[in-house]
Specification:
Uracil-DNA Glycosylase, subunit E; about 230 residues; single chain
Length: about 230
């Protein structure tokens, strides 16, 4: 895979997301799409393994009048910020990705607040959302299902385009299962209530809770993913 070519493909994909949102009638004065992908393509292509995270939707703010005015930006704009490590959803992503790259478990890592440079791994992953439109409250399951229907062709193309070796689905795998492995496929590894692992054309597909989950300890969440990727 060539970095120059992937950068062009990513730029073309961003334009395609905007066109699709417009075709779906989702774009207006107060709501625009949020593009996603890889922040640092050169580093992504050097990464071993190449890691993709798939979450539900990007969040934006509600203004002081309660009006939802959002979107029109790219996820990389947030990952470039010095305080990205403070985001509670991204903290587990940082720990997991850092552990996979550095080949270490939870007990061997510093706290992110003590080594904020750990957040740089966010720039080196492919990060995509099922919905390309901003959300403002807790993600509704039916809304996300509709989003998958709307964005399915683009989502599958993004997976093909970035060619990850590991895809970590943050409570989104059910949406992709039939398209990627077949609805009746069984995991090659399962720890019910923690993680299910599938394989597809040499890729590992990890079905896990959303990173900001509260069902299991953060240590168990982080280590259960890392151990399947080493």
């Amino acid at each position: 895979m060539d970095a120059k070519n992937l950068k062009k493909l990513q730029a073309d994909m961003a334009e395609r997301i905007w066109r699709k949102a417009d075709e779906l009638g989702l774009v207006n004065e107060t709501c625009k799409p949020v593009t996603d992908g890889v922040t640092d393509i050169d580093e992504y292509l050097k990464s071993s393994p190449r890691i993709m995270w798939v979450l539900k939707e990007p969040w934006d703010d509600i203004d002081e009048n309660g009006i939802t005015c959002g979107g029109g930006w790219d996820m990389s704009e947030l990952f470039e910020k010095d305080n990205a490590w403070k985001n509670k959803t991204w903290q587990p992503i940082i720990y997991v990705t850092y552990g996979i790259i550095k080949r270490c478990l939870w007990k061997d890592m510093d706290w992110i607040r003590d080594d904020t440079g750990m957040a740089d791994v966010l720039k080196n992953i492919a990060y995509i959302n099922v919905s390309k439109m901003p959300g403002y409250t807790q993600s509704d399951s039916e809304k996300i299902r509709l989003a998958y229907t709307n964005w399915r062709d683009i989502l599958l193309e993004q997976i093909k385009m970035y060619d990850p070796q590991i895809i970590i689905f943050g409570y989104t795998f059910e949406l992709f299962k039939n398209d990627l492995v077949g609805i009746n496929a069984e995991p090659i590894y399962r720890d019910d209530g923690v993680i299910h692992v599938y394989e597809k054309d040499g890729m590992k597909l990890l079905d896990v809770y959303h990173p900001n989950q509260r069902k299991i300890s953060r240590e168990l969440y982080v280590d259960s993913i890392i151990k399947q990727c080493l």
